[in-house]
């Protein structure tokens, strides 16, 4: 795969719910950060997206968004001012703590993202830098709120593993690895630990109807949740 295109892009359509329904393709995409000069991906309905939700911080977004000419771009800085919760258990992965910090410290921002995607008049793209952590939590919110099975949400999250080497090369955090270099040396940067996303889903499960209940507890209305399922689920 070339580096002049999104390398961690996928459609959140086709995911199974607990009732056997599937999420609708072409509603919401997730990806790593777009760059100027990227080729359009093939086979995605409605591309370019009508709405882009950029989850990166101010230091990561000095220039105009490369998709701004074609898409309405919303910047939601989900980590801005965020304090990660204290965690004394050394067996807990750092990303687990980070994701918990997002749920505890930035619920209004996650609700804002949900509403941008809900109100999009066409496909929406959600991305951060790698399309892994911030995007992973947001994707879990969107999928769970539609009733997608936890195992499917976890499977979508770990799909990023196979793309992270290219993502890091695009971010210029990792050079081209010469033959014989052990990729375990960059394993921590590339990790998508299931523990981290499982704990997110456990938090949702503390509420009626999983993420739908979590969102309702932070101001999302029953009408909004109903419209989300109507929009995102196939009949």
TrEMBL record:
Pfam families named in the record: Y_phosphatase3
PROSITE patterns, A to Z: TYR_PHOSPHATASE_1, TYR_PHOSPHATASE_2
SUPFAM superfamilies linked: (Phosphotyrosine protein) phosphatases II (SSF52799)
Full protein name: Protein tyrosine/serine phosphatase
Domain Tyrosine specific protein phosphatases positions: 108-172
GO molecular function terms noted in the UniProt entry: phosphoprotein phosphatase activity
Species this protein is from: Saccharopolyspora flava
């Amino acid at each position: 795969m070339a580096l002049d295109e999104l390398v961690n892009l996928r459609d959140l359509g086709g995911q199974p719910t607990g009732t056997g329904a599937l999420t609708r393709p072409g509603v919401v995409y997730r990806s790593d950060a777009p760059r100027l000069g990227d080729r359009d991906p093939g086979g995605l309905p409605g591309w370019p997206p009508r709405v882009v939700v950029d989850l990166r911080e101010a230091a990561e977004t000095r220039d105009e968004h490369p998709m701004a000419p074609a898409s309405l771009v919303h910047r939601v800085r989900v980590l801005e001012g965020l304090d990660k919760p204290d965690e004394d258990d050394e067996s807990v992965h750092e990303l687990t703590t980070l994701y918990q910090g997002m749920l505890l410290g930035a619920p209004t921002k996650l609700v804002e993202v949900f509403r941008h995607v809900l109100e999009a008049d066409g496909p929406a793209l959600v991305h951060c830098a790698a399309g892994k952590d911030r995007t992973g939590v947001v994707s879990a919110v969107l999928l769970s709120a539609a009733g997608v099975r936890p195992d499917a949400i976890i499977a979508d999250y770990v799909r990023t593993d196979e793309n992270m080497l290219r993502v890091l090369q695009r971010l210029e955090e990792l050079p081209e690895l010469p033959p014989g270099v052990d990729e375990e040396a960059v394993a921590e940067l590339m990790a998508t630990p299931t523990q981290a996303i499982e704990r997110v889903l456990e938090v949702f499960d503390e509420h009626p109807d999983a993420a739908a209940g979590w969102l309702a507890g932070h101001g999302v209305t029953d009408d909004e949740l109903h419209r989300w399922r109507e929009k995102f689920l196939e009949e």
